[in-house]
Predict the structure.
Amino acid sequence: MTRLLAIMMVLALAGGCLVPSPSPMAVTRLYCGMNGVGGPITDARFIKFVDEEVTPRFPDGLTIYDCRGQWRGQDGRLIREQSRVIEIVHSDDPSSRAAIEAIRGRYKSCFSQESVLLMRSRPAMTSF
């Protein structure tokens, strides 16, 4: 009986090690328009931007979605364009929020964009 109890305790403890408990994080999505001043932003330019501006700030990973979107510009015109969504799961702390804002600012300046939509969900429970 004692041996069975000891085995059950070891299995219970080992099982807890195999399944990490979720931790609170934030999920941020950046909606990036792909119409540049001189024409569409190429895949190569976008990936270069991600490699140079996003990955160094969030090296643990991200997801990119291709999509189409529309929005009304400051001049009142409806703009429809190819877009990319950069989704990042990150700690919800001031340094991560500052890194997100730096990415938005760089995208706008690099590609002459009027805006980059930010959508943040928190808390997001994650487990890897």
The chain has one domain: 22-126. Confidence is low (pLDDT under 50) at residues 4-13. The chain is about 35% helix and 40% strand.
